[in-house]
UniProtKB/TrEMBL annotation:
Site (Important for catalysis): Y129, K179
Catalytic activity: (2R,3S)-3-isopropylmalate + NAD(+) = 4-methyl-2-oxopentanoate + CO2 + NADH
Cofactor(s) needed for function: Mg(2+); Mn(2+)
Primary location class: cytoplasm
The name this protein goes by in its record: 3-isopropylmalate dehydrogenase
Taxonomic placement: Bacteria, Bacillati, Actinomycetota, Actinomycetes, Mycobacteriales
Transmembrane portions of the chain: none
EC number: 1.1.1.85
Length: 337
């Protein structure tokens, strides 16, 4: 396995080190290339993502990312627009995968959470995030701004298929989350696509939920969800809610996947570079370690992925109130393995 590692900035570097400890303990001999990408390089020479970065990343099987960001990078959003989004499009990461699981010991704000264990498959390249819009009459009282949601049959069908396959491999339930009663054009396309693909996955029960209702169920009855499939914007919102109900940012892992397998998929903790705690050795590397589990599952190393998740679960359950020490978490997981 050829692995590209982008530790990035702030706590990204700290949590990636722990994630690699775990990977090395489980899968010896992974060929790693480390990339100096992110705010550090941008602040040094003004480069975000070059064509040669992309070409070189493409030569790997998978990518592990820490976090990118630094408040000193100006203009605001330069790394998102100059690096993270271009990377997503260059590698065609159309499936954004966000598992949400409530581990014993996690600080859920819910009083009666029940069993929370679901996965959100968020479309990553279309919807309202394509920059398809414009502004006119700016600075006048008649200013107007538009963003048009782009939904193609091709783009929707490939994430819907991916979501069905994941549901078939889990508890066999797929929930489409949208707003089909109001967004009739985009919603109609999503619903028709789900209906048309469904017969190929006859073991999967199909459900539908409006986005507004879904935010309620996520708090009142999250156990009803197994796999959720949704568009880019709804997915952005609901995955943060999902992370909140399962105890927050320290355990949320994600995958950016090219389901066609043409380009390397990328795995990363959901959190950012956390400049407020960077360099203090107290970032929780659990989300990065769980990202390694997702990565291992993606490359077919299911048994190894299961072992990482079991070790994380045991660790979270035995922590108590003790403050997190980044390197100790990785050491404990490695020892448990
Ligand atoms: P970025 O711009 O890089 O996304 P951000 O300011 O949006 O950074 P995050 O880095 O996501 O924010 O952090 C949000 C809050 O959560 C911060 O207070 C941060 O300290 C905390 N936090 C994030 N990740 C972790 C972690 N792994 N362990 C502990 N606290 C964390
Ligand atoms: Mg952030």
């Amino acid at each position: 396995m050829k692995l590209a590692v982008i530790p990035g900035d702030g706590i990204g570097v700290e949590v990636t080190a722990e994630a690699l400890k775990v990977l090395d303990a489980l899968v010896p001999g992974v060929e790693k290339t480390e990339y100096d990408l992110g705010a550090r390089r941008y602040l040094r020479n003004g480069e975000t993502l070059t064509d040669s970065d992309i070409a070189s990343l493409k030569e790997h099987d998978v990518i592990l990312l820490g976090a990118i960001g630094d408040p000193r990078s100006v203009p605001a959003g330069v790394l998102e627009r100059g690096m993270l989004l271009p990377l997503r499009f260059a590698l065609d990461h159309h499936v954004n995968l966000r598992p949400s699981k409530l581990y014993p010991g996690s600080a859920t704000p819910l009083k009666n959470p029940g069993e929370i264990d679901f996965v959100v498959v968020r479309e990553g390249t279309e919807g309202l995030y394509t920059g398809n819009g414009g502004a006119i009459r700016v600075g006048t009282p008649h200013e107007m701004g538009t963003e048009t949601s782009v939904n193609t049959r091709y783009g929707v069908e490939r994430v819907v298929r991916d979501a069905f396959a994941r549901a078939a491999a889990r508890r066999g339930k797929l929930t489409l989350v949208h707003k089909t009663n109001v967004l009739v054009n985009a919603g109609g396309l999503w619903q028709r696509t789900v209906d048309e693909v469904a017969p190929e996955f006859s073991d999967v029960e199909v459900d539908y939920c409006h986005i507004d209702a879904a935010t309620i169920y996520m708090v009142t009855d999250p156990a009803r969800f197994d796999v959720i499939v949704t568009d880019n914007l709804f997915g952005d919102i609901i995955t943060d809610l999902a992370a909140a109900v399962t105890g927050g940012i320290g355990t949320a892992a994600s995958g950016n996947i090219d389901a066609s397998g043409t380009n390397p998929s990328m795995f990363e903790p959901v959190h950012g570079s956390a400049p407020d705690i960077a360099g203090q050795g107290k970032a929780d590397p659990t989300a990065a370690i769980l990202s390694v589990a997702l990565l291992l599952r993606h490359v077919g190393k299911t048994a190894e992925a299961d072992r990482v998740e079991a070790a994380v679960e045991a660790d979270l359950g035995s922590r108590g109130e003790a403050p997190v020490v980044t390197s100790e978490v990785g050491d404990r997981i490695v020892a448990a393995l």
